[in-house]
Specification:
The structure holds 2 protein chains of 2 kinds. Chain A has 3 helices and no strands. Chain A is an all-alpha fold. Chain A has one domain: Helix Hairpins (Orthogonal Bundle). In chain A, helix 1 runs antiparallel to helix 2 and helix 2 runs antiparallel to helix 3. The relative contact order of chain A is 0.13. The model of chain A has no long low-confidence stretch (mean pLDDT 88). Chain B has 2 domains: 78 residues, NADH-ubiquinone/plastoquinone oxidoreductase chain 6, subunit NuoJ (Four Helix Bundle (Hemerythrin (Met), subunit A), Up-down Bundle), CATH 1.20.120.1200; 38 residues. Helices cover 78% and strands 0% of the residues of chain B. Chain B is built from 7 helices and no strands. The longest helix of chain B has 26 residues. Classes of the chains: A mainly alpha, B mainly alpha. At the A-B interface, helix 1, helix 2 and helix 3 of A face helix 1, helix 2, helix 3, helix 5 and helix 6 of B.
């Protein structure tokens, strides 16, 4: 049997990779992909705890995270299309009109 | 045997996640993310969450990633190296951010290492029956509210992506 903390450490590593991607990449689609990595790391934590405590609730929560991820991807990609139409670029550093 | 499978899919997941960051073109990044999602699903199977493993492949790797790949191909992005060029401020921040991130990981790892590592003896397979039983009784209201969320996200996506509204 695999101990719980192996799963938790794996999830922490995946979350770190997602955070690094979010801060290092400049392409807005790469940022959305990094968010997906982070959401999956959290899902893995939920399922690991659910299996450890023999509770189904953690898996229900993963279901809702999945729904939110789908909504986020749909709205985010619509924003990407709108941004590309206006600026001809996906670099987040170039969309700085609201920056003071 | 299970340990071997765990390490195989864990290495695959971490490697694919790093490959998402390394790739220059986002199309290859998203294809690599599909590999990561599939190995996460395999880990779900090892945790006896079979229904979630199937749902993860169908919804995430099937629907969401297709949406990503579709948008990337629709925009027909040029592999422009000048877009990746970063300002001096960002390059400076990178050298602070990476050690801080690794420090955070070590902190989390040290904490997590002491979490009860007792092997779970109770078997609780996450079948569709068990999940459906809970979702349609105890979590019925949140389940219905997600339909509202999806509807609003759908309308928002149409509003944002439409050329002139």
């Amino acid at each position: 049997m695999i101990p719980l903390n192996w799963y938790l450490i794996l999830a922490a590593v995946l979350f770190l990779v997602g955070v690094l991607g979010f801060f290092l990449k400049r392409n807005i689609i790469a940022l959305l992909l990094s968010v997906e990595i982070m959401l999956n790391a959290v899902n893995l934590t939920f399922v690991a705890f659910s299996s450890q405590h023999a509770q189904i609730r953690g898996q229900i929560f993963v279901f809702f995270v999945l729904v939110v991820a789908a909504a986020e991807a749909a709205v985010g990609l619509a924003l990407v299309i709108a941004m590309f139409r206006n600026r001809e670029s996906l670099n987040v550093d170039r969309s700085n009109l609201l920056k003071w | 045997m299970i340990q071997i499978l765990f390490f195989l899919f864990a290495a695959l997941a971490v490697g694919a996640a790093i490959n998402v960051l390394v790739q220059k073109h986002v199309l290859y990044s998203s294809l690599s993310l599909i590999v990561m999602l599939t190995s996460i699903s395999a880990l779900f199977v090892l945790l006896q969450a079979e229904f979630l493993a199937v749902i993860n492949v169908i919804v995430y790797a099937g629907a969401i990633m297709v949406l990503f790949v579709f948008v990337i191909m629709l925009l027909n992005l040029p592999a422009d190296p000048s877009d990746e060029k970063e300002t001096d401020r960002l390059r400076w921040l990178k050298f602070i951010g990476i050690p801080l991130g690794i420090f955070l990981l070590l902190l989390v790892g040290a904490t997590v290492w002491n979490v009860g590592s007792a092997a779970n003896t109770t078997q609780m397979p996450g079948t569709a029956e068990a999940i459906g039983q809970s979702m349609f009784t105890e979590y019925l209201l949140p389940f219905e509210l997600t339909s509202l969320l999806i509807l609003i996200a759908l309308m928002g996506a149409v509003v944002f992506a439409k050329k002139d509204l």
